Each structure stands twice: as structure tokens, then as C-alpha cells.
Amino acid sequence: MVRVEEERMKYLVTGGAGFIGCNAVQRWLAAGHTVVVLDDLSRRGADANLAWLQAQRGELLFERIDIRDAALLDAAVGRHKDAEVVLHLAAQVAVTTSVSDPRHDFEVNAFGTFNLLESVRRHMPSAVFLYASTNKVYGGLEEEGVEELAGRYAFRRTGGVPETQPLDFHSPYGCSKGAADQYVRDYARIYGLRTVCFRQSCIYGYRQFGVEDQGWVAWFTIAAVTGQPVTIYGNGKQVRDLLFVDDLCDAYDEAVSRADTLKGAVLNLGGGPEHTLSLLELLAMLEQLTGRPLRPRFADWRPGDQPVFVADISRAATALGWRPTVDVHSGVARLYRWVEENRALFG
What's the rounded Cα separation, in Å, for the pair 158 and 309? Predict the structure, then answer.
């Protein structure tokens, strides 16, 4: 696995105080790089993550920026136009929030990404631009054969959903992230930006402050540790492929090291068929870890919730020389231990 450690570089990370962002930022600081974090600190846990990053060794620069403000964002990017890599993570991340406030969702995800692309095109057109898209661009996949098994749903197809799957945006969130996905791809074709678009599946790991409507692996784990009630929307047999955040950051590093050959690429990043879990299976794991039953409440299905999604990650494996290394049992155990050791953060 190639690490981006050979020379000092400057990274700019939007949403760098979020869950994925702070893990990527900490890694790059530890490797000796300079990292600029742009974040509006609106997400739960962002203040704690930023304080944690500021306590790390390395050259960290922080600016409180809302990516919806094109002028402020452009000025910030202009101040750091010597950055060689841009990782764009800032987003509205919950389907439920997008349904209740679609305008805000659009302004952050679609318009905010457009603002950033324009600033990068203007100030640092040679930078590597990594974008965190989502598997929600593939929609509900109603045409897929799905079978109900004991404890989980499963596709009848093997290998998962490939990047060639027709796009079918569902929910305002799917529309806003999907629009941004296509803008990022097209800015490589039309303007020559060195973009890579990652359609990410369920990412989980350290410093994830999951809530009920987003980050379900972390939310169930936090609730199990702190004794909060858990609600399952649907029957709990919904399945996702899970990717531990360390494996995700490995993929980012590989993409930076291969940027010249990946310009304009669209890649699925997830656990793939070998790293899947249903909600019920996660609860069973957590019951073993805590030594007590969790007794969830069940409620109606939520809009935009796919019964099953598993990504075909073979294109990423070939393009990046990368495979996930953390299995779901080990990953959930690592997250559980981190939550146990940091209970004070969830009071």
C-alpha cells in the first residue's frame, strides 16, 4: 500500500472537522504534511474533533467557512492556492434532513460543491481534487432482485452494484449529491481538473458522532454504550457494505499517488461483498460486546432507504491497488472500544 509520505505537501480539506475529515487530516499531519481545514463546525462533534486535531503534532491551519458563501470560500481557497490536494467532504449528509429541508440540502451539497470547483479552477487548477460522493446516486435499485433471508436482505446478483449502473437519484439528498458527482466528473472533462469522484458506501470508525438519521453503525454503538434507546426503521434486515475509515484513508492516499492516471475517474469505495452487515446483525454484535440485550423499538420504513446496497469495488481495487483490510467484526469492536474510552464525549 503506497503512502503519501515521500515529500511534504499541502492539503486542503473541506469538512475537515467531521468524522472522515479529522481521520484524514490526522493521518496527513502525522506524515509531515501541512493541512488546511475549512469547516463551519455545524455538525455534532465537530468542535471536539477540531480540538483533537489542534492537539496533534503538525502544521494545521483552520478557517471557519461555510461553503455556501462563494465569496468567502473563494477568498480562503485563494489564500491557500499552493495546496496540491483538495479533499471535499463538507456536506449535508442525512436523507431525512434533505426531505425536511431540501433547499438547505441543495445549497450545501450541489451549490457548495460548484462553488469549490470554481474556486479550484480559478486558483489551483493543477491540484488533485478528491470528492466524497455517495452510493445514493444509484437510487432505490427497485429493478434488482432482492431476497429476504434469515436476518438480512441480499441481492440475487453477485459482486455488487458497479459504476456502470444507471444513475437514478432518489430523495433530495440523492439529487444534490448526484448533481455534485456529475459536476466533479465533468470538470475533469471540460476544464481538465484532476478530479476523482468516490461513490462511498457506509463508512464507520473512530471519532464518528453518529445520530439517529445518519451514521447508523456509530449511532447504534454509541447508544449501546450509553444506554440510549434504539429505533429500527423497517424490519432491521437492511444490509450495507461497510468500510472502516482507515481503509478509506488508504484509498485516498492511493488516489493522490495515482492522480495523473485517474483524472476524471468515478470509483465505488465500500466494503464490497466481503464486508456486509445488516442492522440486526450489528445489534447482535453489540449485545455480545456489552453483555446485555438492547431491545430496539421498530418503526415504519423511512423514505429513500434501500433494502440492500452492496458496492462492486473491483474497479477501485484495480485502479488503486487497494482492498479493504478491516473485517466488520474487527471494525465494530474497534469502534466500540473507542466509544467506551470516550464516553465523556457523548454525555
Answer: 12
> Do the bridges between strand 194-200 and strand 152-155 make them parallel or antiparallel, or are there none, so unpaired?
unpaired
Residue 4 belongs to a domain: no
Strands 85-88 and 128-134, bridge-based pairing? parallel
Q: Return the beta strands (E) in the chain as ranges.
A: 10-14, 34-39, 59-64, 85-88, 128-134, 146-149, 152-155, 194-200, 202-204, 231-233, 239-244, 265-269, 276-278, 297-299, 308-309
- Residue 63 belongs to a domain: yes
Q: How does pLDDT run across 122-136, given as a tens digit for each residue?
A: 999 999 999 999 999
What's the pLDDT tens digit per position in 131-189?
999 999 999 888 888 999 989 999 988 789 999 999 999 899 999 999 999 999 999 99
Give the active site residues: 173
Q: What is the CATH number of the domain that holds 52?
A: 3.40.50.720
- Return the number of other C-beta atoms located less than 10 Å from residue 340's C-beta: 14
Domain hosting 158: range is 10-346
Q: Is the dihedral of CA 166, 171, 174, 175 positive or negative?
A: positive
Q: Which backbone phi and psi does 264 adopt, to 5 degrees?
A: 85, 5
Spatial neighbors of 7 by CB under 8 A, at least 6 apart, are none
Number of structural domains found in the chain? 1
Q: How far apart are CA 302 and CA 300, in angstroms?
A: 6
Helix (H, G, I), strand (E, B) or coil at 231: strand
255 touches 186 (CB < 8 A): no
> How many residues are recorded in the chain?
347
Tell me whether residue 3 is in a domain. Answer: no
CA separation for the pair 224, 293 (Å, rounded): 9
pLDDT at 74 over 70: yes
